[in-house]
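Severity: low
Component: inverse-folding endpoint
Summary: output formatting inconsistent between runs
Steps to reproduce: submit the following structure tokens with default settings.
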């Protein structure tokens, strides 16, 4: 592999005698890994056979013996798993060591797209917790939204703000993840473009940008809350030096984690480093900090949407497994939002503070007295399990995902869920002998499914 000369010098300084082994690892095929969705409860044996290997630091993580064409797997589209680099799954182990996820917590992913670490955090949260996923680059919001909807956790809000816009949420979150944009050294094996774009100047630029993001992230953390800082790079300027800078300029102390020696994760003066010649994964860095001072944001308010009339609420109940858990509101354009009753104050604060954001779990809309369910509802783990459905073969499931017509026999008239291996793929509406496919057009498979 042709590596930038200055990068080689940098890594020789960091690794010493280990450098040659490190360089050789970059020539090897990168591991393929997925993370199962614990709320959708499909095992890796069903999806990929019995030749998967567990990821040591994540109970839902699995290495695959070879990389399949995920686009041609309906379970992927149903949110049964997320294709994620194994090293970055370490976030779950770190988070579980610092927070009690049996309790309600407020969590924010500040640089969230495309959603790998966001969905990982969603897997840890209970039904009384809240997740805010923020992405500053507008073009990256759509894939983040799609991945969150596929994952099915209903208690999230999606926003599109610069971190410095969020000052009114100061002290609001128990955990803020800052997976900061970086020089991408840990991606050299995966992405040749990252090698070509790397330079000493880019490292300096990224380090300065990361400090700005960390400064904004720090204010969002509640006292005794935690800030998690991660990158996919190796150099000390972006990693350890920024971590040290945070403890010197804000009221944070580093948190040390308990990590089994056999995981071969390298502990630094600040944080933890994954090297591909020592762990089965790509380059990754993570550090955890606890906020030692400050004040927690007090949350008081009401959601400023109109409540859905009780008559219509009664019509909505059949669509959800636990409708009593939600309060239902109608946006001005007609979409129905289901907000967890115990989180109404928190939602109110976020919806009031952030202008460029979603409104939460949109489940559909009424046209007259008829309810039109959303694709978000079809993907959600909050949906009722008693709704009419049809189990599709893999061939028909892929045709459905191409937004084509499929023959559905002996089914009742009306809304029906298309399923594959017990997983919801989306809604169909049967009218006489015709079936309308309600898969969003932007979600459809565009490649040839005969491959």
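Observed output (run 2 of 3):
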């Amino acid at each position: 592999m042709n590596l930038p000369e200055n990068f080689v010098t940098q890594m020789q300084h960091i690794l010493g005698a280990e450098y040659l082994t490190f360089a050789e690892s970059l020539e090897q095929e990168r591991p393929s890994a997925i993370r199962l969705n614990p709320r959708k409860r499909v095992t890796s044996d069903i999806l990929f056979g019995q030749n998967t290997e567990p990821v040591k630091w994540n109970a839902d993580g699995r290495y695959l013996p070879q990389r399949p064409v995920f686009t041609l797997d309906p379970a992927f589209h149903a949110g049964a798993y997320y294709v994620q680099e194994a090293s970055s799954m370490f976030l779950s182990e770190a988070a579980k060591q610092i927070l009690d996820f049996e309790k309600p917590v407020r969590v924010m992913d500040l640089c969230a797209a495309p959603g790998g670490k966001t969905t990982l955090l969603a897997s840890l949260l209970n039904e009384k917790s809240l997740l805010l996923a923020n992405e500053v680059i507008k073009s990256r919001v759509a894939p983040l939204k799609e991945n969150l909807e596929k994952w099915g956790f209903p208690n999230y809000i999606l926003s599109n703000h610069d971190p410095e816009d969020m000052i009114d949420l100061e002290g609001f979150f128990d955990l803020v993840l800052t997976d900061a944009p970086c020089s991408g050294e840990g991606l050299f094996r995966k992405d040749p473009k990252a090698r070509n774009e790397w330079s000493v100047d880019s490292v300096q630029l990224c380090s300065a940008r990361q400090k700005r993001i960390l400064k904004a992230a720090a204010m969002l953390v509640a006292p005794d809350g935690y800030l998690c800082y991660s990158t996919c790079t190796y150099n000390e300027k972006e990693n350890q030096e920024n971590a040290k800078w945070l403890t010197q300029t804000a009221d944070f102390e580093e948190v040390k984690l308990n990590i089994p020696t056999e995981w071969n994760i390298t502990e630094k003066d600040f944080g933890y480093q994954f090297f591909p010649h020592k762990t089965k994964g790509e380059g990754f860095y993570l550090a955890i900090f606890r906020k030692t001072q400050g004040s927690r944001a007090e949350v008081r308010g009401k959601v400023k949407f109109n409540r859905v009339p009780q008559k219509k609420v009664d019509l909505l109940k059949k669509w959800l497994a636990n409708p009593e858990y939600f309060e239902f509101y109608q946006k001005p354009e007609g979409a129905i939002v289901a907000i967890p009753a115990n989180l109404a104050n928190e939602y109110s604060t976020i919806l009031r503070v952030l202008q460029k954001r979603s409104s939460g779990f949109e489940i559909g809309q009424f046209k007259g007295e008829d309810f039109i369910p959303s694709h978000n509802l079809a993907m959600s783990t909050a949906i009722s399990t008693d709704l009419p459905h049809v189990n599709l073969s893999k061939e028909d499931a892929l045709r459905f995902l191409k937004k084509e017509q499929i023959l559905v026999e002996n089914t009742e008239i009306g809304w029906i869920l298309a399923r594959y291996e017990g997983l919801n793929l989306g809604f169909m509406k049967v009218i006489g002998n015709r079936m309308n496919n309600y898969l969003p057009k932007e979600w459809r498979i565009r490649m040839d499914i005969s491959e």
